[in-house]
Amino acid sequence: MSGVSVTKDAEDAVPTADLVVLSNVNKHFGALHVLQDIDLTIARGEVVVVIGPSGSGKSTLCRTINRLETVDSGSITIDGKPLPHEGKELARLRADVGMVFQSFNLFAHKTVLENVTLGQIKVRKADKKAAETKARALLDRVGVAAQADKYPAQLSGGQQQRVAIARALAMDPKVMLFDEPTSALDPEMINEVLEVMQQLARDGMTMVVVTHEMGFARSAANRVVFMADGKIVEEATPEEFFSNPRSDRAKDFLSKIL
Ligand code: ADP
Ligand code: MG
After folding, report:
1. Worst-scoring range by mean pLDDT, 12-26, 31-45, 152-166?
2. Of 12, 29, 138, 241, which cross-links 166 as Cys (Cβ 3.0–4.6 Å)?
3. Sheet-wide strand order for 223-228
């Protein structure tokens, strides 16, 4: 790394330690105050697991970071820059912020390989050959290289979800958001997806993971964020959180799932 320059403009600013910063974020759905004064800072390379009861606002939180949802007030910055509102800038932001959903959301009429090359070509302006080389390497990394020429419906759920991870990684995201990535999977396929995520965490990817997989939280998370009723109720290391939750809401939640 070269030295820090304070005179450069925002475009080529040196990387900030804090990659994702939400400050005093509020969001309503009609009368429902779904995100309430959310302050959350995610450092580069940090793995944050978000847990909490259904309806507490976890998915909405993820979606605001990717600007799939707008916010009513407060600010969100990625790598020191506010979220763009529209156009090419927004497409680039979406590529910088990889997202993996519960439902795999692959393009059904494209092959696995095409699913992983498309964004590289359209958004990152990669040429086809380079995009395919990179896609094959990523498919190999997530263990589905042999499925490259198949269509999503020909793959198991676990394989499809690993393709979805490879597709997001193909954009060289700065941060990866996972919203209950294993919730729709048959039990025997959960681990193959969690293992890919574990490896990603070990490789230093900045990750926000909404999950009910407490084993993953214990082994991969730097920090657990517990949400209830649109608020961050508690933040702690996994060791602290699981052995000594402070709030009654967290104690109650943990007593139901552990
Ligand atoms: P979680 O992911 O923690 O289960 P969500 O963020 O999905 O919670 O939802 C939080 C609350 O916001 C829920 O009460 C949900 O019904 C409501 N909600 C989510 N999306 C919308 C929407 N597009 N319109 C209206 N209400 C919504
Ligand atoms: Mg959700």
Report:
1. 12-26
2. 138
3. 97-100, 175-179, 206-210, 47-51, 223-228, 231-236
Q: What is the pLDDT of residue 88?
A: 85
Distance between alpha carbon 231 and the CA centroid of its chain, in Å? 19
Interatomic CA distance for residues 97 and 19, integer angstroms: 11
- What would the pLDDT profile of 115-168 be if each residue is shown by its tens digit? 999 999 998 999 999 999 999 999 999 999 999 999 999 999 999 999 999 999
Among 33, 36, 59, residue to substitute to test ligand 1 (most atoms within 8 Å of Cβ): 59
Q: Which mutation among 25, 26, 32, 62 tests ligand 1's pocket best, with the greatest number of atoms within 8 A of CB?
A: 32
Q: CA nearest 64: which of 82, 44, 49?
A: 82
Tokens matching residue 8: 């450069």
Gap between the terminal Cα atoms of the chain: 44
CA distance 195 to 82: 33
Asked if 173 and 99 count as a contact pair (C-beta separation under 8 A), the reply is no
Cα angle 197, 173, 158 (rounded to 5 degrees) comes to 35
Q: What is the ipTM of this complex?
A: 0.98
How far apart CA 189 and CA 86 sit, in angstroms, is 37
Phi, psi of 188 (to 5 degrees): -70, -10
CA distance 206 to 146: 28
120's CB contacts (< 8 A; 6+ apart) are: 126, 130, 131, 134, 135, 170, 171
> pTM for the complete prediction?
0.92
